[in-house]
Amino acid sequence: MKFTVNVECSPEEARRFMGLPDVTPINEKLVEEMGKRMEQNIALMSPETMMQSWMSVGTQAQDAFVKLMTSATGMTKP
Fold first, then answer.
1. Inter-residue contact 51 to 58 (CB < 8 Å)
2. What does each C-alpha distance from 38 to 14, 46, 56, 57, 75 come to in angstroms?
3. Using CA atoms, how far apart are residues 40 and 32, in angstroms rounded to an integer?
4. pLDDT digit string, tens, across residues 39-64
5. Are the C-beta atoms of residues 69 and 77 closer than 8 Å to each other?
6. What is the 3-state secondary structure (H, E, C) of the chain?
7. How far apart are CA 55 and CA 71, in angstroms?
8. pTM of the complete model
């Protein structure tokens, strides 16, 4: 024998019925913190800041990239 029971309830009612904890305050705090961090890091995504950080390294990064690519292709540096 097989039977189906449909129950209409809100997610809050289902959570309480199942005895699960209410994590709404934790979720709200997490979303708030993620928003703050995103706002702080948006400045790092500006083209001026990215170019400054790339240029501060100088040609070392470029040389390392060329070495990586030449070793990956098995070619020798010209």
1. no
2. 33, 13, 24, 25, 41
3. 13
4. 887 766 777 776 777 676 666 777 77
5. no
6. CCCCCCCCCCHHHHHHHHCCCCCHHHHHHHHHHHHHHHHHHHHHHCHHHHHHHHHHHCHHHHHHHHHHHHHHHCCCCC
7. 24
8. 0.44
